[in-house]
Predict the 3D structure of the following.
Amino acid sequence: MPVLDASAILNGFGFMIDHIAYTVPQVMSEFRDWRSKSLVSAAVHANHLRVYSPLQEHVKKVRDTAKRLGEQLSEADIHVLALALELKETIITDDQGIQNTAKSLGIQFKPVMFREARKRVLKKKCPNCSKQYSGDADWCETCDEKLVTLK
Ligand SMILES: [Zn+2]
């Protein structure tokens, strides 16, 4: 069960249907627009996403390591790392700072864009700008329109 940062939750949402994942309260508060919020709260409600706070000793260890490495990490980043350290789980993130700090702490990580084999890939497009998306996306990132599935 991986630990997800904010970008992993939004971009990799599809893989959480099959897997339970973890995140931290600080990541949850990064979602400000109502669509992201409702997406994420639906995932929590469906028990696909579990929100935990890491222990203070792990937060401190991550903070000290990031400082030593000179990485500028947000509170959300630090807590994501601390939770992964605590649970001995993999972090899904594209953030270079998180990855560098994870490496130094012996935490495994994977980039957001990795994809596990899909049962089916639906092509979707935005009814407004016609931009095409894979089956994972639900909303056009440019127009915020709900995507329609191509036949
Ligand atoms: Zn669009």
Q: What stands out?
A: The first strand starts at residue 3 and ends at 4. Helices lie at 6-11, 25-28, 34-45, 56-69, 75-87, 96-105. Residues 126, 128-129, 131, 140, 142-143, 145 surround zinc ion (CB under 6 Å).
